């Protein structure tokens, strides 16, 4: 592998290596370990930043290696404008989050564990966005779900945290299965398993009769991960996680995985009526629902969480709108949102950390006590509100330029965008104004400015939003335009700047500000109105999730009671009936009954004697007075078969059969001596007749099956192969031994392992309690049937 690819692979693996050393480092340095651990994602950021000139010039970066050639599976990466931008956001914001976590969780006894989880998530998200292979993307996709489950449920002593973690895992896990099915359908349509090749086959996919199936399945994965309506409810509940998790997973990275997937698929799946209908409708609905629910909240994190839902809806709506301007708007807004929302979440956590509350009604007058935090919050709110001179202004202007047209469809989504942006404008300034302005309010803690570890992240992200707008020509050249080109599937140049242009986009921006100001001034009545509406509606997706889980548990209990009643005789009866059906049904359906063999004229007397012994042993088993006698006489059949093997020239098989039968009888007899055995069979006559019928069906089925097999012409292919290669390849003259030890060595090892595990399980059951003696369980169990094996 070339040195450049080795360095890229090292950058992919580095967050996982950092997770390995995080506990050790935290034990020695405490929260100061954050400064050291943050260097590792910073190195990842620098590595991916080195690819910016190449990608900005229209190139791509690829690499990897073949994993399973027979299935065309590879561990490969693909860096274009889209994946590189995501990689820079993940590693850059991740560096600041690691620092922020050290300050926010200072003194927490599980800080090392938290660093492990957050770094594992960083590595998973990084692998997801740079994956070229379908399988590689899916593996990392599921890993993000698992690591986010650990992060959301970090405070596992709280029931709310456990519920939120489970909810996120169930919703995104089901979406992951939908994604896997969609990738498999896409693979079936195209025959390829790499996204870099998929871009060239858009016509083949959209023309396929399976296009809609693949689209719906893939969007199922994207919509659940990016909290689209009606799957949005898990994201606000995930605010039970520590604030560094909220700032990283649920604003800047994980929730954008679905948006990333939609953008990645746009050149291939886009441009169809289904794409341009489903995405705008679901995205627009999510935008309105998230923004309206945000107004209702009074918790700073929940307010920001619902606006994140709204923002994700806006990005999905724009990506599916079907124009190059819309793609450019989605790209600009994605970058702007990552910067201002990450900063605002950190501000919310900083306020909570220093004042002891996140309830906006209990906050005020913190401007003098927390001046740096106030400046960062104000700058991020300006960007969230789409005001100059911040990057959010460029995104909002591009949104309105992309959506506005004279047709009803476009005007409807313009209205949706104006209302959604106005509501998010309100929330941004509620977070930036309410806690800091006005008279000083007494809070649970005496608020003061936090340490550098806490304010450095929001300050730098807010500053980045300002610099990206001020130097927008350079930023567009190296980030925005390459990303838009990757999403559009062709070269795209973004030129919007801070210089206002008279036109409908500017007028719509002014209308947004006016509407937002009116809502801000009437915030309490608006909050009460939305709360009353939701109370009147009652049921919602969040409550529906609880009902779904409860119904699933009830259904599983009912199904378990039917399929797993805890009675061995039922399990055995069902198993043998299934075996009999599998053997006899095909012969009956297709009329392929074998011919009965003729009585051999040259049968020797000793051969007939052995068969007679087998029948005598069978009769002894059936009419045995107790189970121990039945077990011993059961070995007669096995010995008879071993003698037949010996007579017909297979001494090795005969020896194996003797050993197996002897051990089986001995082991079963030893087990039976541990049980209280009854000499009588308490089954009613009808049950005996039924059991005998099932046994007869199985026996007849196997007999007919073997007869049918022996009627077929003998194929000596395997025989010839082993004869030719046993000595040459395996250097063994005994073909049977060579097959077992060499050609089927792994299979034999597996069989030995199974026997060993079964033996250990039996031993643990026998020695489950010290002082155990035969019959003790039956003596202590008043409900145990007397006279039966227990």
From TrEMBL:
PANTHER family: NA(+)/H(+) ANTIPORTER SUBUNIT (PTHR43373), NA(+)_H(+) ANTIPORTER SUBUNIT A (PTHR43373:SF1). The keyword Membrane applies. It is found in: Cell membrane; Membrane. This is Monovalent cation/H+ antiporter subunit A. Signal peptide: none annotated. The keyword Transmembrane helix applies. Its main location: membrane. It is a multi-pass membrane protein. Residues 131-416 form the NADH:quinone oxidoreductase/Mrp antiporter transmembrane domain. Keywords: Antiport, Cell membrane, Ion transport, Membrane, Transmembrane, Transmembrane helix, Transport. The lineage of its organism: Bacteria, Pseudomonadati, Pseudomonadota, Alphaproteobacteria, Hyphomicrobiales. InterPro entries: CPA3_Na-H_Antiporter_A, MrpA_C/MbhD, MrpA_C/MbhE, ND/Mrp_TM, Proton_antipo_N. The chain crosses the membrane at residues 6-26, 33-52, 77-99, 111-131, 137-154, 166-190, 210-235, 277-295, 302-321, 327-351, 372-391, 411-433, 453-479, 499-523, 568-590, 605-624, 631-649, 655-677, 689-708, 748-766.
